[in-house]
Amino acid sequence: MPVSSSTTAKVYLDSNRVISPISPLLFSGFAEHMGRAIYEGIYEPASPHADARGFRRDVLAALKELNFRAMRYPGGNFLSGYRWQDGVGPRDQRPQRRDLAWQSIESNQFGTNEFIEFCKEINTEPMLGVNMGTGSIQDAANLVEYCNAPVGTQYADLRASHGYRDPHNVKYWCLGNEMDGSWQIGHLEAEEYGRKAREAAKMMRWHDPAAQLVLCGSSSSEMATFPEWDRVVLEHCWDQVDYHSLHFYANNHRNDTASYLAYTAEFEHFVDTLSGILRYVKAKNRSKHDVYLSWDEWNVWYKATLTKDTQGEWKTAPHLIEEVYNLEDALVVAQWMNVFLRKSDVLKIACLAQIVNVIAPILTTTNAMLKQSIYYPFMLFSRLASGTALDVAVKAPMYQTTKYGDMPVLDVSASYDEAKGAMAVFIVNRSQTESMSVELNWQDRAPSMINCLHQLSGSDPKAANTFENPNQVVAVEVPAPTISDKAATISVPPLSFTVVEAQL
Ligand code: AHR
Q1: Ligand 1, atom 2, residue with closest C-alpha
Q2: Segment 236-262 mean pLDDT
Q3: Does any ligand 1 atom lie closer than 6 A to the CB of residue 75?
Q4: Reported pTM
Q5: Ligand 1 centre and the CA of 390: distance in Å?
Q6: Cα 175 to Cα 179: distance, rounded to the nearest angstrom
Q7: What is the pLDDT of residues 298-334, one digit of tens each?
Q8: What pLDDT, on a 0 to 100 scale, did the predictor assign at position 2?
C-alpha cells in the first residue's frame, strides 16, 4: 500500500466495547541489585538528599509520582546467585560478596527488610523473587516463612529478632528469573525448571496459601526455545501458579526510526502467541484454573551494550547500562503501554525494567536527579489509565516500514472508569513529518468535557534530557477542545504522544 498523504484520522470510542478491567499491576516496576539501581539510586546514605534510613528523598518523590503498584526485587540475573540470608539482620554482620551476574561487589547493606520499608514508603506492593539458580526449594520456602509466617518458628522468629514482629505479608512471588537463558546462574532446561518450580511453589504455598506465584516464561520472543519452553513449564506448573512471565527489551540498532516506532506489531505478536499457549495448556491439563501474563521486564535497552556495560569489574555500585532515553524511545514506551491496555484481558502485571539509573526513567548523581523522556508516558498511563480498557476503532493513514510492512500512523488505546467518572485516550503519532487532525467520536455517552490534553513531542527523535538541559522532552499541557455533538477534534504533531483526559 502506498504511503498516504492524508493528515486526518478518526477514533471511535464506545464504552460498551470493553476489552477487560485494567489491572492496576500493569503499572509496576523492577529494582535489581545491579549497577547503581539500589546503591546510589534508591539508597545512598552519603547523599545530601538521604533521609534517616539512607533512602534518597528526591528519588522517592519521583517514584511516588510514577505511582508503581508493585515492585519486583531483587533481580534479574542477580537473583539467581542471591542468598537472601546475606541481606537481613545487623548491617555490620552482613557479608560482602562477589556478584557473579554483574561481576560486582555486593555489600548487602540493602536487603529484604529495607526493600519492604522502601515499598511502604512509595506505597507499592512488594513482588519478591526466589532464587531458582543456586537456591534450593528449601531456601525459597524459608524466605516465605521469614516474610509471611507469624512468630513462633525459626525463620519468623529470625524476622522478629531483626525488628519486624509482624509478618510482611508479601503477596507476589517470582519463581526465579529468566531460567531459560544460558547466561543465567544455574540455568535449567525446561523440564528441569518446570519440576523445580512446581515443587518450590508447593512448599511456598504450604507456608502461605495466599501467595500469588509467577512462573518464568521466555526471556524474549527471540529465544530459540520460545515458545516450547513456555508450553513445557506451564504444563508442569499450571495449577500451582497464577502468572506466567515474559520479558522483552526493544532496540533501534538499525537506526530505522520508522520501523522502531511500529514495534507494537512485535509486542502484540508475542502476547498473542503466549495467550494461545495459555489456552492450550489449560485445555490439555483439563483445568478450571486460569493463569495470566506478567510482563515483568520491559523497556528500551540497546545503546548501553551487553558486552561493554554489564561487567562491573568487581566494583561496588558500578555504572552499568545507564541508558539515555530520547524522544523516539518515549514513543515506543507509550505504544508499549497502549498494548498493555489492548491486551488487558490476558496481561495483568507489567514491570518497567528498571526504575533508577539502570535502564531507568530516573538518573541520579549524588546531588541531583534527572527525569528521562520515558518518565512522562509511564507517569501519564499510571495516573490516568483506570477502570476498563476499550476496544477502540481507528481510521488512520498507513505508512511503510521495512520491518513490519504497512502500519497505521496512529497507535491508540483508551480507558473508561465509570466509578471515577473519568476516561482517557492515549494516542501516538508515529509519523516523523505529518501532523494529524484526529476526530474523536463517542459512539454512546460522550464525556462532559476534556479536562486536559497532555502532549509530549519534538522534531528530533534523538532529543534527550540531560542534567544541564532537563526539559528537552517533557509532557506539557496544551489547550483542550470542547466536545460538541459527541465529537472533538485534536491536533497531534509528528513524533508525539497525546493523552486526552476527560471527565464523564
Ligand atoms: O534488567 C536487566 C537484566 O535483563 C535482568 O537482570 C535480566 O533478567 C534481563 O536479562
Answers
A1: 76
A2: 98
A3: yes
A4: 0.97
A5: 32
A6: 9
A7: 999 999 776 677 899 999 999 999 999 999 999 999 9
A8: 35
Residue 377 has pLDDT above 60, yes or no: yes
- Is any ligand 1 atom within 6 A of the Cβ of residue 246? no
Cα–ligand 1 centroid distance for 75 (angstroms):
7
Percent of the chain residues topping a pLDDT of 90: 97
Question: Considering only CA atoms, which of 213, 207, 52, 194 is closest in space to residue 130?
Answer: 213
- 35 ligand 1 Cβ < 6 A: no
Does ligand 1 come within 6 angstroms of the Cβ of 353? yes
Catalytic residue numbers, as ranges: 178, 297
Give every CB contact of residue 346 below 8 A, 6+ residues apart in sequence. 271, 274, 275, 278, 292, 293
* Domains observed in the chain: 8-16+390-503 (2.60.40.1180), 23-384 (3.20.20.80)
Torsion sign across C-alpha atoms 115, 334, 357, 46: negative
Q: How confident is the model at residue 373 (pLDDT cuts 50, 70, 90)?
A: very high
Of 340, 320, 347, 300, nearest to 461 by C-alpha is 300
> Which tens digits make up the pLDDT trace of 152-184?
999 999 999 999 999 999 999 999 999 999 999
**Atom 7 of ligand 1, nearest CA residue:** 76
User: What are φ and ψ of residue 322, in 5° steps?
Assistant: -90, 70
Q: pLDDT tens digit string along 449-467? A: 999 999 999 999 999 999 9
What's the pLDDT at 1?
34
- Residue environment code for 412-446, b if the CB has 16+ CB neighbours within 10 A, otherwise e: bbbbbbeeeebbbbbbbbbbeebebebebbbeeeb
pLDDT score for 309: 76
Q: pLDDT higher for 286 or 1?
A: 286
C-alpha cell at 345: 484481558
Determine the distance separating the centroid of ligand 1 and the alpha carbon of 156, expressed in angstroms: 30
The residue behind cell 533481580 is 75
Q: Is the CB of 99 inside a 6 Å radius of any atom of ligand 1? A: no
Q: Is the CB of 297 under 6 A from ligand 1?
A: yes
How far, in Å, from the CA of 363 to the mean position of ligand 1?
18
321 CA: nearest ligand 1 atom? 2
How many angstroms separate the CA atoms of 24 and 81, rounded? Answer: 31
CA of 109 to the centre of ligand 1 (A): 21
Confirm if 131 and 82 have CB atoms less than 8 A apart.
Answer: yes
